[in-house]
Amino acid sequence: MSTFYSRQAKKYNLLTLVCFLVFSNLLNAQNSYTLIGQVKNKEGVLMAGNALALSVSDSSLIKGTFFFDGVFELSGVNEKEVLLKITSIEINDTLFLVTNNKSKNDLGTITVSQKGLSLDEVVVTASVPLFEQTKGGATKVNVKKTMLGSSTSVSEVLSKSPNVLVGSNGASVVGKGEALIYLNGKEIPYERLSSIQVNRVESIEIITNPSAKYDAEGRAIINIITVPNHSEGIQGALIQNSTMAKHFLSSSAVNLSYRKGKWSLKGDYGANFGKDWNQSKTKRTFDTDQGIFVSDINHEENTRLTYTSNYSFGVGYQINKNNDISVEYDGLYNVFDLDVRAQNNSIDPVGFSSGLNTVNDGQTVNKNNSITLNYNSNLDTLGSTFFAGGQYSNFNTNLNDLIAEEIYENDRITYEAIRNNVGSNDIIIATPQVDYNRIFKNGGSLEMGSKYSYANNRGRVDFYSKANKTDEFIILPQFSNDFEYTENIPAAYLQFNGELKGKMKINYSFGLRSEYTSSKGVTNVLDSIVIDTNYVNVFPNMAINGNLSKNWKLGFSYSARINRPQYQDLDPFIWYQDSLTSVQGNPFLKSELTQAFESTISLKKYSLKIGYNYSTNSFRYAVFPGGTGVNSVVLKKINVNQVNSYFGSLTIPFEVKFWKMYNTLSLTFDQIIDERTEFKLNKITPQFYFYSYNEFKVKKWFNIELYGEYVGEQNDGIYFREATGSVSFGLSKNFFKNALTCRFIANDVLKTYEEVGSYELGQTSTDYTRKLNTNFYRLSIVYYFGKLWNVVYRNKATGDEEFNRINQ
Fold first, then answer.
1. What is the DSSP string of 629-692?
2. What 8-state DSSP symbol labels residue 115?
3. Measured between alpha carbons, how far is 742 from 732 in angstroms, rounded to an integer?
4. 276-300 tens-digit pLDDT
5. CA 329 to CA 236: how far, in whole Å?
């Protein structure tokens, strides 16, 4: 099968390359013009910024270039008339009409007015919308200067973004499913979001059908874009968030950036203190040969954030105006003191009552260190680029669960024991990567690149137990393990983007990505290989978007995706939670494959998106009978044969002078198809989703923000989820010419958000309710300081794609 896929991949790549070359010749054969000019301020100082050629009809971008020393050259302009826009963070935007009448048009000296760059003289020149639709159909969330910018973590920002649902294991997009998290175009693990300061985030892109340049994992992409620094001088921010929920939480951070000449520096540090909280209630019913057993479980966590911190430091050097190099270190060190209490009450078929009380006073320590080296090169004035980079990361978790158990029958304690679960998990990831992007004179582009990912995951668990009032712990081999997993994934991609100009102005793209996966898993305790597989996958994609008229736009896209299991999901060891509940990996998990189709129609700022996803081997959690009693259970991931998913999403923005509103309404319909007898398929129920964000400007006094989200009930045939939702309120005010921002937030003010659902597999049916730390009140204070002149620090994290499969 690997040979067959390799041959097919070669045919696809050859055919694609031929098409690219034909298009390249056609594109370069057309007549084009060049615009040159020199940009100065009123004092005659050469400025830096961007020169953009915009369409006269709809102001869309035709061509653009960055200039560093005041002189720009904009080649490959075909239009007779264009709007030329000169823009940067240090000058006021300048816009004027240019008529091309010869092959090279020298516009001479363009004098621009300079913005006040000192942060004690901030001038607001425009109001940026909170949400935008990009040309490729993605949703862009502008985070800064909104209620989202006062979140204590990026994961909290995602939970308040449209069509994004955040759970304990990651983020998903409504109608698509699990999403990969990217930072400035390079993937990071969901858990690494805690190392990103929200103050550094400029915007977030929600991409539902990614191109070939993105890794093929996941069904959607969430790309976090940080604030660029193009200026000399020093700038920084002090952030303090004080949150009152069930317990008090404090989040503090400092950001610093410095640039002088060719050198740039950046550093961040953040720390959290306090307690986090969650609670769950579960009812399990076991239909056994002996009759029906019922268990009611109450579980509550009050985890102390004893020491949680994240930090980063980066250095950049600009070799010349077209080439730069940077190195960055990122670290994370978190210590959590556990306070987990659970009560499991069981009733057997004859009405006999028994139960189990547990208290876990253990500790979890997470450590993450990564170093990234990047080289960037601008190859021509059209914007062609070359990138080479690599990353080495080490992730380590040390667990020390100290579990006191009481077993009772008819309210009488019959046995007491202390369990000690000592575990460690070490993951090493190394990823070199190369990307080349060629921009053609009439606006088309060819992207190609390759990447090699190496991952090694070593997990060890030693489980000890001793009866109460005894001195010596005894190791229990059935709950102990030593597992090692190694994975190698080389990948390569080609992506072409083009434009057919005319009345309809059609943008199109198509590409191929090929990935070869080689994985091996060894259980050292049993001295046996449980995973040994090699396979090749080819992932095509295409998209086409066109303007039907001035106000109407239509688009269609297709992409193939893969979702590999997390490393821990493959490990067959049993992770002990208490005498009746355990978690186990499944080495027989297969990768999920998805074919995604999507179409969009837009009228001005309104858009309707309709899509269909066909998935095989989709992941679902399931409860199975355990080995420590008739009412014991083991939780593990399994594959279901097929999932059909249909979705529609309507976006309705609204804006008047003092009120901005953004609404999203979605309807999804998921259908599980599996013929196994343990799957008892029920009636399917579609899910309705509604999101609304409102901002009110009360003159120049303050801003009011109101956010609400409703997630309707859903049944995919096995898993039923009840409706839930929340409403949040924000009030913000700027002081000292915007140097100080204060914001008060009341989150989930009606206390309505909770996760409630049920499912039935085989002999076991489960009902659950989970409450999270969503109801809180927060005071956020951000102080900006420093003075700026003018430059660039660029860093891309190239090696974190595989981290998304780490369950930290």
1. STT-EEEEEEEEEEEEEEEEEEEEEEE-SSEEEEEEEEEEEEEEE---TTB-----B-EEEEEE
2. P
3. 6
4. 999 999 998 888 888 888 989 999 9
5. 19
Say if strands 220-226 and 177-183 run parallel, antiparallel, or are unpaired.
parallel
Residue in the block written with tokens 């070593």? 458
Least confident of 10-14, 194-198, 638-642: 10-14
pLDDT tens-place string over residues 14-38? 334 334 333 333 333 345 678 888 8
Secondary element (H or E) of residue 21: helix 2-28
Backbone angles phi, psi at 468, to 5 degrees: -60, 145
Contact 453, 488 (CB under 8 A): yes
Closest CA to 386 of 322, 431, 320: 322
Tokens of 265: 């520096």
CA 771-777-778 angle, 5° bins = 120
Give the residues across from 456 on adjacent strands: 428, 486
Of 784, 794, 786, residue with least CA distance to 233: 786
| Per-residue pLDDT at 122 | 36
CA distance 694 to 653: 10
Residues 268, 255 contacting (CB under 8 angstroms): yes
Helix (H, G, I), strand (E, B) or coil at 442: coil
Per-residue confidence (pLDDT) for residue 792, from 0 to 100: 41
Residue whose C-alpha is closest to residue 426's, from 454, 458, 453:
458
One-letter amino acid for residue 637 of the chain: K
Q: Distance between CA 449 and CA 437 in Å, rounded? A: 9
* Residue 509 tokens, joined: 């793209």
Please, what's the b/e burial string for 8-45 (b: 16 or more CB within 10 A of its CB; e: otherwise)?
ebeeebeebeeebeeebeebeeeebbbbbbbbeeeeee
Q: Which residue has the tokens 């096995």?
A: 718
State which H helix or E strand residue 159 sits in: helix 154-159
d(CA 284, CA 635): 12
As separate numbers, helices (DSSP H) first and strands (DSSP E) second, the chain gives 3, 46
* Helix %, strand %, coil % of the chain (to 5): 10, 65, 25
Q: 450-466, pLDDT tens digit by residue?
A: 999 999 988 888 889 99
Sequence-ordered list of residues with C-beta below 8 angstroms from that of 13, at least 6 positions apart, any chain: 494, 512, 514
For residues 572 and 584, is the Cβ–Cβ distance under 8 A?
Answer: yes
- Per residue in 255-269, pLDDT (tens digit) is 898 888 889 899 999
**Rounded CA gap, 290 and 274, in Å?**
47
- Given a cut of 50, is residue 118 above it in pLDDT? no
Q: What is the 3-state secondary structure (H, E, C) of 258-325?
A: EEECCEEEEEEEEEEEEEEEEEEEEEEEEEECCEEEEEEEEEEEEEEEEEEEEEEEEEEEEEECCEEE
| Complete edge-to-edge strand list for the sheet that includes strand 104-111 | 71-77, 33-40, 104-111
